[in-house]
Amino acid sequence: MVDIHKTATVDGRAELGEGVVVGPYAFISGPAVIGAGTVIGPYVLIEGAVSIGQRCRVFSHAVLGTIPQDMKFEGEESDLKIGDGTTVREFVTVNRGTKASGTTRVGNDCLLMAYAHVAHDCVLGDNVGLANGATLAGHVEIGDYAFIGGLSAIHQFTRVGKHAYIGGMSRVSQDIIPYALTASEPTRVVGINVVGLQRRGFTAETRAALKKAYQIIYREDLNKGQAVEKLKAELAGVAEVRDIIDFLETSDRGILK
Fold first, then answer.
1. N or C: which end of the chain has fewer CB within 10 A?
2. Which of 105, 135, 157 lies at the terminal end of a domain, its last residue?
3. Residue 189 lies in a domain
C-alpha cells in the first residue's frame, strides 16, 4: 500500500513501489520511479526522470533531479539514479545529468547530509558519505566508502578513491588516491585512512602495505611513473595496492600532493 499525504502532488507518470510514503506538500513531477519502502518527506521536490531505490529516506526540502547548473545544458533528456538504502537529509540538492554522460548516479547505502550538493554527471559509489555542506562540481567520481567532510568543495572532473577520507573545509582540485587521508590548509594527503580501515576490518598486514605504498608515492621523491613501477615491483600482490596502481594509471588531473 502506498501512503500519499492529501497535500502532496504526485505526477500520474510516477511509479511508486509497495509501502512508499509521500509526506505533506511533497511534489513529484515527471516519470519518477520510487522503490518499495522509501519515505519521501515533507516539501521534497522530485523532478524529471529520477529513479530512487528501495528503503531510502528523503528528508524535508531536498531537491532531486532538477536540471543541471551547467550553461552548456540544452534541455537534453537525462536522469538521476539513486540506489537502495540511501539517506538524503534536509535541503540536499542533486541535479540530473547532461549529454556528457546522461546520468547522475548515487550508489547504495549512501548518506548525504544536510545542504550537500551533487552536481550533474557525478558518480558516487556505495556507502559514500557527504557531510553537511559538502559540494561536488560536475563530473566528480567518488569511490565506495569514501567520506567528504563538511563544507568541502570538490573541483569538476576530480576523482576521490575508495575508502578515502577528506577532512572538513577542504578544497580539492586533484585526484585523491584510494585509502588516503587528507587534512591541513591547503589540503594535502597526510597518510592513509587508518581509522576507517580498522573499522571496516582491513587487516594489520594490509594497512602496513598501504602505509608503505603511501611512503613510495609521497616520500621518495619519485614521479608518478616511477612510483607506479616501484609499487608494481614491491607490492602488486596486495589487492588494495593494485587499486592504487590502477587509480594512478588512469588519473587525468594528477594526484593531490
1. N
2. 157
3. no
Please give the grid coordinates belonging to residue 197.
580501515
Q: Which residues pair with 88 in a beta bridge?
A: 58, 112
Rounded CA gap, 173 and 47, in Å? 30
CATH of the domain at 110: 2.160.10.10
- Cell numbers at 92, concatenated: 540536499
Catalytically annotated residue among 138, 143, 150, 161 = 138
Catalytic residue among 121, 150, 163, 243: 121
> Does residue 70 sit in the same domain as residue 148?
yes
| The overall pTM is greater than 0.85 | yes
The per-residue pLDDT string of the chain (257 residues; one tens digit each, 9 = 90 and over) reads 999 999 999 999 999 999 999 999 999 999 999 999 999 999 999 999 999 999 999 999 999 999 999 999 999 999 999 999 999 999 999 999 999 999 999 999 999 999 999 999 999 999 999 999 999 999 999 999 999 999 999 999 999 999 999 999 999 999 999 999 999 889 999 999 999 999 999 999 999 999 999 999 999 999 999 999 999 999 999 999 999 999 999 999 999 99
**Could you confirm whether 163 is annotated as catalytic?**
no
Domain boundary among 105, 127, 157: 157
Range of the domain at 207: 197-249
Quick check: is 243 catalytic? Answer: no
Q: Clarify whether 121 is annotated catalytic.
A: yes
Q: Which three cell numbers stand for residue 50?
A: 529520477
